[in-house]
Amino acid sequence: MALRYVTSSSAAEPETSDAAAAGAGLVLVSGAMDAYKVQVWARTEPFLIGALPFPPPAKFSMHYLRKMATYVRARSAEGCYPRLRWPMWRHIACGKLQLAEDTAWLYYEAFHCLTERSAHKSLEWAECVSSCSSVGEYEEVRSTLSVDTLQFLLFLYIQQINKVSLRTSLIGDEWPSPRARSPTPDLSGQSHFHKNWDDDGHHAFIHHHLPYLLELLLDPDQLTKSSHSSPYSLLSLDAAHALSFLLEGTVDKNRTIHSFIDLALWHPMQTLCGYSKTSEAFSIKKLQAWIKECFVVNPFGISACIESGRKLSWAQQIDGSHRKAKIVCNVYKVPHGNRMVLMSYIHKQTLAKSSETLVEAHVKIAHCNESYIYLLSPLRCVTIEKCRNSTIILGPVQTVLHVQMCDHVKVISVCQRLSLLSTTSCTFHILTPTRPLLFSGNQSAVFAPFHTHYAMLEDHMGQTGLATLPNYWDRPHLLSTENDGQVWKLMSPREFYSFVIPFEMEGDTAEIPGGLPPVFQKSMDQRQQKVLMWQTAVKEAKLSRDQRNHFQALVEQKFNEWLIKTENRHQLDSLVPKSDGTKEVAG
Hints:
single chain; alpha/beta; 15-stranded mixed β-sheet; 21 helices
């Protein structure tokens, strides 16, 4: 006899009378427990998308968050618990934690986008915001928002993963604990100030901070006088649900992923994790011990993708290059929602893809230079790191487009949020419903309106919940103390040109979604008028055949000189399709 695993979507009837186990969708039939091993790991998205790559406010320490946890539970009737409304968070953040309102909204909206908004809800929100005609109406719309209070507390606490520690920076160890570096740091991009892609760091953070995370979820009457848990503290079932924001796991060797609460309520695990059906609560001591015993590094994280992911031949090896392009993905081995595509060392090439492999994937582009990269699919999130002298055109990014440590890179995309860290002389043609975030170390960033399209763009925008309004591309939010004038500027309309994506695809989008801002459209119209006037002048000159041929040769010569001067020649050369089809968009 063996233990059989049944998912909650299975047509089979639950073979146990235990309601909690049936709700979890994990059913014990019979057999030896040795056939099963529960594994729990830190979810990727709370850290990758939710943790801002910036040291958190000092008031996000455990001391203040514990006070906030007590405060919200005592004011459930005022819109604090179990759902925290925006007006109450603004009151707490600005009045109690001394945050600026813009900063309070930044964290609240980031969490709301991550946990509350499907593509459909995002489009509804965009419609509501874009229809507001006054600040008062906008505030009324925001006042309708609410988030899960306990999950939001956990979200605020994990911002500390990017906390800068003076002591560890001096001795060379990475916070929160010393650990071995990744065997392939070029792809994973470890750095002391940006651990969002570091699954080993996520594991270490949860492992070392688990007691504090659990304390944030306890009822105040379960804490001691020193505001700590005791071995006899009980965590309510409702509070335990919040842990599913940070944790998930499996019982069938990673074939199926389940939420944390489903695993904890699985009948064979209830005794081990300290769950009592009588009190509908967990023993905090047993639950903590069980989590640590089952806790492993995310098997679907970046390390696993690098070590065992499938290599993709999307880019060609350039003769004489000292680095070979590396593109790997894990989409053939992981459940939906955990897919990753990692790209590095693309050198002097044009890479273009619109592929199912990219759909809703977490994408990282690193160490690419002098290249043109087109990823024309709906993406979940994108990080561009340590690239230079390149142009990167992306399909709609549903959550965060983060660019860091890049030099002279042009990025063209529709995205939910753009954030920049330590970039130099980069240009961003962006359509975004949130203000671009400028963290520390940026120099000479240029912002311009989104200025291109491809046939499937509007369909992809609908899939990711991104609309044409509101559009805050020209309202960056500076989150450092640097001189604003040296950090960013808006592109002059005189320097603005539209961008043509040189690939044919099936679809209905035939123009830039939402059009261009009037001042930029006027500049384009004036430039087009000059071209028409020049063409008319040439036509009316009544040149002879030899004169026309000579004139055409001069124009082509000047055009070729311009291509060489601007280093665009290699882009045109690489657009010529190869016999193996690796330069095709689809695939």
